[in-house]
Amino acid sequence: xxxxxxxxxxxxxxxxxxxxxxxxxxxxxxxxxxxxxxxxxxxxxxxxxxxxxxxxxxxxxxxxxxxxxxxxxxxxxxxxxxxxxxxxxxxxxxxxxxxxxxxxxxxxxxxxxxxxxxxxxxxxxxxxxxxxxxxxxxxxxxxxxxxxxxxxxxxxx
Length: 157
Prior knowledge:
Blueprint: E1 2-11, H1 18-36, E2 39-45, E3 48-56, H2 57-69, E4 73-78, E5 82-83, E6 95-97, H3 101-109, H4 122-134
Parallel strand pairs: 2-6
Antiparallel strand pairs: 1-3, 1-4, 1-5, 2-3
Protein name: BLUF domain-containing protein
InterPro entries: Acylphosphatase-like_dom_sf (IPR036046), BLUF_domain (IPR007024)
GO molecular function, one term: blue light photoreceptor activity
């Protein structure tokens, strides 16, 4: 049985900067999901994540258990699990959408001044997923962890 599972969480500030955390999450998700026929979308803004996962029930639920144990997330809120007949995000093992005005305007239209996915309801989620589906995928660059070409030098030019 195919399901769609959406959740929201708050990013825990850690040792790594945001770009490094996002790059790590995306690389890990894309590799794991491609191997396990899981598809979906990730959105991050204002300190919060929203992610939608789609695939076989056993695979998605097992992945979500791992996500709940990830120390980069807290206040993980699972929304209703929905049985689906086809994968909505089938082009992406994990689509990533950058923060943008369409999404900011959507959250304003539902009475929120910023991205606060914990306040979404099932109707809002459906509309939000439509926007995420239509918005272009963003490829996040992988940032070296130590300066210029991992040698400790900073590029000042």
